[in-house]
Amino acid sequence: MSVEKRRELLLDAAFRVIARDGVDGATTRAICGAAQMTLSTFHYVFDSRDDLLADLVQRGTDIELSVIVEALTSASSDDIEGFDGIRIMLRESLFGYIDGLIDDPDREQAMISLNQYARQTAGLARLGTDMYHRYYEAIAYGLRRGAEQAGVDWDRPTDELAPLVVAATDGITLAYLNTRDREVCERIADATVTLLLGHVTRTGSN
After folding, report:
1. Taking residues 69-92, what's their average pLDDT?
2. Cα-flanking dihedrals φ and ψ of residue 154, to 5°?
3. DSSP letters for 114-155
4. Residue 200 needs a FRET pair 20 to 30 A away by CA distance; which of 31, 66, 92, 154 works?
5. What's the pLDDT tens digit per position in 101-156?
6. What is the DSSP letter of 200?
7. How far is residue 196's CA from residue 177's CA, in Å, rounded to a whole number?
8. In this predicted structure, what is the pLDDT of residue 205?
9. Is the pLDDT of residue 13 over 60?
């Protein structure tokens, strides 16, 4: 088995253990047990537990961003212009996020635990900051692309609107993890769409 394959299996196992037991419970022994690997294999692949956790934050962020970008890309390709076009894009994007959350709630639970752990751990604190900055950048890009597709403008830079979307997805995540109620998540999404539409200005005939 290649080193890269072993790395992937250990990271998958770490997500499962952290979602179940929290970061404190994700000892190298517990992770190796979940991955059915030896401790020596762990130390062959990773320099330390913190090294694995840093990789885990990076991997989880990549997965979450791919979910968001895929939802934005799919929604912005509907060829519906004007106010209705941007409304549909926003709604489908947020509902796509909800679908991803429901498909893999353990990943989101693990990411919350990792973010809290990183903020409290010397040498890892920047990981949470970097994670959110990447979210902001990806969503700001998606909002710009959606507006271009629909032929509308935002009344302010998308860099200022992106944190609103991240706050909404954070709220959706916590609501679902605590209640497993999709309807609640959809209400949050719809309220966020209404809020964002207040920042849309029509252009041309739109």
Report:
1. 78
2. -95, 150
3. HHHHHHTSTTTHHHHHHHHHHHHHHHHHHHHHHHHHHTEEES
4. 66
5. 999 898 888 888 888 888 888 777 788 888 899 889 989 988 998 888 889 999 99
6. E
7. 25
8. 43
9. yes
Query: Where in the sequence is the domain holding 4, given as residue range(s)?
Result: 1-46
Q: Band of the pLDDT at 76, cuts 50, 70, 90?
A: low
Return the SS3 of 202: strand
**202 φ, ψ to 5°?**
-80, 145
26 φ/ψ angles, rounded to the nearest 5 degrees: -90, 70
Statement to judge: residues 64 and 94 lie in one domain? yes
Burial state string for 118-143 with b = 16 or more CB within 10 A and e = fewer than 16: beeeeebeebbeebeeebbebbbebb
What is the number of domains present in the chain?
A: 2
Whether 117 and 93 map to the same domain: the answer is yes
Domain boundary among 29, 46, 63: 46
Spatial CA neighbour of 90 closest among 160, 33, 25, 161: 161
> Do 116 and 81 share a domain, yes or no?
yes
Q: Which residue carries 């990789």 as its tokens?
A: 55
Q: Per-residue DSSP letters for 4-35? A: HHHHHHHHHHHHHHHHHHTTTT--HHHHHHHH
Residue 7 pLDDT: 95
pTM beyond 0.90, yes or no: no
134 in the same domain as 71: yes
Amino acid letter, 100: G
